[in-house]
Amino acid sequence: MKLGEMLVRDGRLTEPALQSALGFQARDGGRLGTILFEHGWVDLEALTVYLGLELGIPIATGAMLERAKRAAVRLLQPAQAFKYKCVPLVVQDRQLIAAIEDPHDFATLEALSALTGYRVLPRVAPELRVYYYIERYYGVARPARFQKFGDTPRGDEGAQSDVGLPAPPLPGLPPVPAAPIAAPGPRPRLRSVKMAKLFDDSEALELDAEDLIDSLEADAEAEAEAAPTVAPIQLSVPTVAPPPTGHPPPAPAPIPADVALR
Questions:
Q1: Which 3 state secondary structure label does DSSP give 134?
Q2: In a domain, 218, yes or no
Q3: pTM for the whole thing?
Q4: Same domain membership, residue 64 and residue 15
Q5: How many Å separate Cα 164 from the centre of its chain?
Q6: What gap in Å lies between CA 16 and CA 7, rounded to an integer?
Q7: pLDDT truncated to tens, each residue of the chain (262 aa)?
Q8: Same domain for 65 and 136?
Q9: Residues 18, 81 share a domain
Q10: Which site in 115, 177, 225, 253 is 20 to 30 Å from 30, CA atoms measured?
Q11: What is the largest CA-CA distance in the chain?
């Protein structure tokens, strides 16, 4: 379900207001959420939650952006943060949690991962709030359209949360089942009798999984080296000497009739 439809469904926006916002969007461009905030139809905290519900992405609240860590912010240059509309928040276990205006832009996520050297876990935030914190942390001026908001997009840690808001998407994996279902078929056997004497099946399988994880992490960390430039391959064509000047080229020998008819 789209952003406007969810807001109308939950009684936070009227249908006429939504249609007016869509008209402004068609005329002026920009994100629908920005237009809704510009005209006072929705506040930033509610907009953040509903953006997360629309995209299925965990959110970056104003309080989170307000407490962004210095080490994370310094991973990007000002021009990079502005280009990718990204505010790094914190580094955790070789992963960078960052507020991104469009967390479904996989090209942006790949570029940020290459720039920072971390796997990027995106959190969605309204674009006007992302621009505000890029200006605050990196000194890059916001686009003219967003300068009129002043300090309004700044997160307020002491503000009371809206109890009527739905729960935003949560990060992380699904919870571990209380009663896991065993896989069908016989238990896998170890390939080595020697290893079977040292470990039981469960321990050996756990070690195999850990080895696989280590290998995958090592491959992810290693950067691909640039291949040397190879000159284009030139195909050699034998040259035929031209006939002597002033003499016509020799006529081809006639083909016998019995050969031509074969």
A1: helix
A2: no
A3: 0.63
A4: no
A5: 31
A6: 12
A7: 899 999 999 999 999 999 999 999 999 888 999 999 999 999 999 999 999 999 989 999 998 999 999 999 999 999 999 999 999 999 988 899 999 999 999 999 999 999 999 999 999 999 999 999 999 999 999 999 999 999 999 887 655 566 677 777 766 544 445 555 665 656 655 455 554 454 444 443 333 333 322 333 433 333 222 222 333 333 344 455 555 555 555 555 555 555 444 4
A8: yes
A9: no
A10: 115
A11: 105
